[in-house]
């Protein structure tokens, strides 16, 4: 049984464009005695939006709303959900690393050991979901003490990998070269804005090339940022290839249909991230921008229910009008064919 330890609500999120080494870095950190590796959590970011929508519903009536009447602030509301999630994940460590449970479920065992010893405290966890790049603000609301690693890989290498990666064994992750560059830009721009907004105390830029070329130095620096002592076992997963795209050496990703301005933008940003240092000061203005964008997304999804209800009413009204028109036509023409459908007839006339 895992030891009973104080559970720190300070998870680690590796954010990146995807195909940048986030999986292997997750398992590297997961070899640390105090860090529990996790599978990807593509639900957590959208969940932060859902919780914020719930808070909005609970406060919209002011003194007649339960949350507002109890003077519960949104920050506390979201962070309490984060505390519960943290408790659940750390509390299910035993189940997560139980190979028999995975075998019974028909799943493969983890690629590496989850724990080296039952005495490993594993008081925090690491998650390498690339999609979390879009939800950094929301994740910080769920987990105010979370730390982020922006893992950067040269865009050309990422594009080559994307074009040779088939998640389900049949379909490529991206359709073509331009889509691959746009995919990289969307995620990396979000990570860069987070660097600017929250500064190096919260988000740490790590170059994939450093992990490959100088692994021990890179890992020592990263663990120092995380506030954890160096553990040499964190380097052991680097000896294996997992989740690899297996890009052929002679593969040429160039597509003449690709917009050259997209490629130029991506390569320019990639070069800057590889060659320049991270901004040392957090920017309050960029932080406010990310907050405003989060609030806009919350409002958008909160309004969808009302818009759906309005659309249903419009559909019901149109159906009534259609029935009226069919009845009028029947009276005037002395009956319609049994299979008559006005929309299909209109298509036939157009054809």
Question: Outline of this structure?
Answer:
The chain is built from 14 helices and 5 strands.
Folded structure, characterized:
The structure is a single chain. This protein is α/β, with parallel strands linked by helices and 351 residues long. It folds into 2 domains: 12-282, Rossmann fold (3-Layer(aba) Sandwich); 313-350, no CATH class. It is 53% helix and 6% strand. It has helices at 22-29, 44-59, 66-69, 74-91, 93-96, 99-104, 136-142, 155-162, 177-198, 208-213, 215-226, 260-275, 284-333, 342-350; strands at residues 12-15, 35-37, 124-127, 147-152, 203-207. The protein has a 5-stranded parallel sheet with strand order 2-3-1-4-5, with helices on both faces. It is globular, with a radius of gyration of 26 Å.
Q: Give the class from helix and strand content and strand pairing.
A: alpha/beta
What coarse outline follows from CA principal-axis ratios? globular
Approximately how much helix is present in the residues?
40-55%
- Residue stretches low in confidence (pLDDT < 50, at least 5 long) are 345-349
Question: From N to C, what is the helix and strand string?
Answer: EHEHHHHHEHEHHEHHHHH
Helical segment tally?
A: 14
Give the overall average pLDDT. 91
Distance between the termini: 71 Å
* Annotated CATH architecture of the largest domain: 3-Layer(aba) Sandwich
State the CATH class of the largest domain: Alpha Beta
State the strand order across the main sheet.
2-3-1-4-5
Strand elements, count: 5
Looking at the structure, the CATH topology of the largest domain is Rossmann fold
Give the C-alpha Rg.
26 Å
Give the DSSP E fraction (strand runs of 2 or more residues).
5-15%
What's the main sheet like?
A: 5 strands, parallel
